[in-house]
Amino acid sequence: MASPQPRIGVVTYPGSQDDRDALWALGALDAEAVPVWHEERELPSLDAVVLPGGFTYGDYLRCGAIARFSPATAAVSEFAAAGGLVLGICNGFQILCEAGLLPGSLLRNESLRFVCRDVPLRVERADLPFTSRCEAGRTIVIPVKHGDGRYVPPPDLDPAQVVFRYRDNPNGSVDDIAGVCNEAGNVLGLMPHPEHAVDPLLGSADGALILASLVEAARDRALAAA
Amino acid sequence: MKATVLVRPKTGILDAQGEAVERALEHLGFAVSGARVGKVVDLEVAADDEAVAREQVERMCEQLLANPLIESYEIELHG
User: Fold this and answer.
1) Which of A57, A59, A60, A61 to mutate to test the interface with B (most CBs of B within 10 A)?
2) Which pairing describes strands B2-9 and A85-89: parallel, antiparallel, or unpaired?
3) A59 within 8 A of A160, measured Cβ to Cβ
4) Nearest to B67 among A62, A112, A172 (CB)
5) φ, ψ for residue A62, nearest 5 deg
6) A193 is catalytic
7) CA distance A126 to A213
């Protein structure tokens, strides 16, 4: 029997920007990428969800602060509470922080400048559903493009929740933190954009290590549920 | 009742905007320190009683207007 294509949802909010790239990248990595509209109160049957980058609701008040109240965000919270895999990229990371699914907050870059460049990241954890194809301690290169990426952790953040660190901090993030997971390890947020680095033609294919890990984990879940 | 909410970056949180503003003021020749940039939210609450209005605005702050991890808030009510 051919292994099934896992169904991975990508939520589009008003102001989402990278939803199409995320859908394309997941499809290229052999997932069935499912567009999810922000007004949907119930998610379709999914094996994982991605909250993409962008500038939802114009970044009004704080980045992600308004998208947190979208019906789809409530559905994603329920999905995560039930153990579902959720990946937040850039603005998606900010939304997950505002929604309380991930610890911490993302503030204006220390330089006050928008940064858009490839950045080397140190993989701190390779034991998560999102990083199984990575190797702990190794460096991967993925682009960032954000004005509000300075991560501020809560005082009690467990260092084991840090999944990626910048090797050359582009935004002033505390402890060079580029990505964190929740305590259970089924929700990950990161500022760099793996969906923009899935083909060497784009400068790096290292993003595929993260997304292919997610596709694989989602496939395992789809098989287990079948 | 009219309310004004002042949202400030918490003490200890690096305020890059405040630092940039401070440097700009120094360029203008002012001797300043400790500049911090926050936000002001003016709104009108559908409540006549001050205690009721304050309680409502406090909940607004907790749930949306401020992020308690990085921001502090102050509420002013104007009859």
Assistant:
1) A61
2) unpaired
3) no
4) A62
5) -145, 155
6) yes
7) 10
Model confidence, pTM: 0.94
Position A4 scores a pLDDT of 82
| pLDDT tens digit sequence for B25-57 | 999 999 999 999 999 999 999 999 999 999 999
Give catalytic status of residue A195 as yes or no: yes
Q: Three-state DSSP class for A219?
A: helix
Rounded to whole angstroms, the Cα distance separating A64 from B44 reads 24
Q: Note whether B35 and B17 are within 8 A (CB).
A: no
The answer to whether B32 touches B22, Cβ cutoff 8 Å, is yes
Q: Which residue has the tokens 């660190």?
A: A165
Distances (CA, A) of A4 to A79, A130, A206, A208, A222: 21, 19, 24, 19, 8
Give me the residue from A61, A107, A112 closest to B70, CB to CB. A107
Contacts of A108 in chain B (CB under 8 A): 16-17
Contact assessment for residue B26 and residue B20, using Cβ atoms and an 8 Å cutoff: no
Q: Residue A203: which region, alpha, beta or left (left: phi > 0; alpha: psi -120 to 50)? A: left
Query: CB–CB of A120/A168 below 8 Å?
Result: yes
For residue A1, pLDDT over 60 is answered with no
Using the predicted structure, report yes or no on whether residue A73 has a pLDDT greater than 70: yes
